[in-house]
Amino acid sequence: MNILIIEDDVFFAEKIGKIFESKIITNRVQILHSFKDFIQQISSISSYDIVLVDIKLWPEARNTDWFEIIKIIRNKWLKLPIVVISWNSEIDWLRYAFELWVNDYIIKPIRLKELEIRVFNWFKNYYLSNISFLWKIHYYKNLSYNIDTNEFYYNQNPIPLTKNNKYILSIFFANPEKLLSESFLVEKIWWDFYLIVNRNLRVNILRLKEWLRPFWIDDWICNIRWEWYLLKAKF
To answer: Does an H or E element contain 210, and which?
Structure first.
């Protein structure tokens, strides 16, 4: 999971960030403290799986900026989950936030465990929305994924993978039989496409396929015309 936190309270933002950084399914946590920071990072928003935005009431914060963040994200990325946290419990604010198609609105003071549960719930609903599931286990053919434990199985046998390999496989798993571009994968894994020089995607995918080879499913991940990748079962 890649999570973007937009919060101008540095202490509170770091506290939230540490919660999600400690989770086994987290790949990257990014914290921004202002509307200006958000604009500077806007090109990378599509690499995130969920956005947490704090809407302020204090005079020094421009409330229009915080709502503008939501508008920009929603206009460009219609389905990306947005969770709002705010001290403001007024119905008009709540109504306006949901008119902007936020997914959740949490009123401060918040219980951090509740925030964690809500964020992960929206992430699961978005990330694996097209995958069949039974209880906590999601399936694609004989390949299954327990998102709570961040473990993959083939025919119920655990597949030993590094954390990085799990994340790469999870991207394919969430998009089965769908062509994924090299730039999309690089952005999801490392955020910046131009960092590919030191973080070779093809090498990482080859390493993942090596871990899958004992289960005879390494050929499920295919390279199509060099710049595209596809996860497709061979039966």
So the answer is: helix 201-212
Coil, helix or strand for 55?
A: strand
Q: pTM for this structure?
A: 0.84
Q: Which domains does the chain have, with CATH numbers?
A: 2-127 (3.40.50.2300), 132-231 (1.10.10.10)
pLDDT 10s digits, 30-63? 999 888 888 888 888 888 999 999 877 444 455 5
**Cα–Cα distance for residue pair 5/16, rounded to 1 Å:** 8
* Tens-digit pLDDT profile for residues 120-133: 888 888 887 767 77
Q: pLDDT value at position 59?
A: 44
Residues 185-202 as b/e (b if ≥16 CB within 10 A, e otherwise) read bbbbbbbebeebeeeebe
Q: Tell me which amino acid residue 222 is.
A: C
Name the 3-class secondary structure at 175.
coil
User: From the CA atom positions of the chain, what is the Rg in Å?
Assistant: 19
The SS3 of residue 153 is: strand
The helix, strand and coil proportions of the chain, stated in percent and rounded to the nearest 5, come to 45, 20, 30
